[in-house]
Amino acid sequence: MSITIRPLAEGDFFAWLSLYEGYAETFDTPLDDTRALRVWTWLSDASHEEQAIVAAADDGRLVGLAHFREFARPLANDHGMFIDELYVAPDSREQGAGTALIQAVRGLAAEKGFGVVQWASSGENDPAASLYETLGTRSPAVTYEIRL
Fold first, then answer.
1. Cβ pair 1, 92 in contact under 8 A
2. How many domains does the chain have?
3. Is 54 contained in some domain?
4. Cβ–Cβ under 8 Å, residues 17 and 40
5. Global pTM value
6. Which domain holds residue 43?
7. Where residue 125 falls among pLDDT bands split at 50, 70, 90?
8. How far apart are CA 71 and CA 125, in angstroms?
9. What is the CATH number of the domain that holds 87?
């Protein structure tokens, strides 16, 4: 299967939603209509910070997604790109879609002269970690959060 990476398009809603539901299930996170529509609205608004690209198979079927955004790096005196969400449908994994999505975000960041592309992983997804370690270097940083 060959993979084409392209921006998310207006007519992609239902295919994107199916992928995004799969992503949410991976994290045991309920995805109701309100939350899904809010994210879709963000991704459809060119002025919103969150952007999306999708991976399409030969037949046009969407098999993966990446949601990402720019962030400032004051100490480095530049900007970076952060991949917030990366997902490939289970039946399309290990066929290059994940690599192609990450490389596409890398390309977008490089075009803008950014200094880094970052993403977080649960640490419990060994197949994903195997891919990630072929594309990037594990950061020594540990992420903390305060839930509000």
1. yes
2. 1
3. yes
4. yes
5. 0.88
6. 4-135
7. low
8. 25
9. 3.40.630.30
Domain assignment present for 130: yes
In whole angstroms, what is the distance from residue 21 CA to residue 17 CA? 6
Residue at 90: amino acid letter: P
| Residue 67 pLDDT greater than 70, yes or no | yes
Looking at the predicted structure, is the pLDDT value of residue 142 above 70? Answer: no
Q: Which long-range contacts (CB under 8 A, 24 or more apart) does 124-133 make?
A: 127/93, 127/94, 128/98, 131/98, 131/99, 132/102
Percent of the chain residues topping a pLDDT of 90: 77
CB atoms within 10 A of CB 125: 12
For residue 67, tell me if it sits in a domain: yes
Q: How far is residue 119's CA from residue 65's CA, in Å, rounded to a whole number?
A: 14
Q: Judge whether 24 lies within some domain.
A: yes
Q: For 15-61, what is each residue's pLDDT tens digit?
A: 999 999 999 999 899 899 999 999 999 999 999 999 999 999 999 99
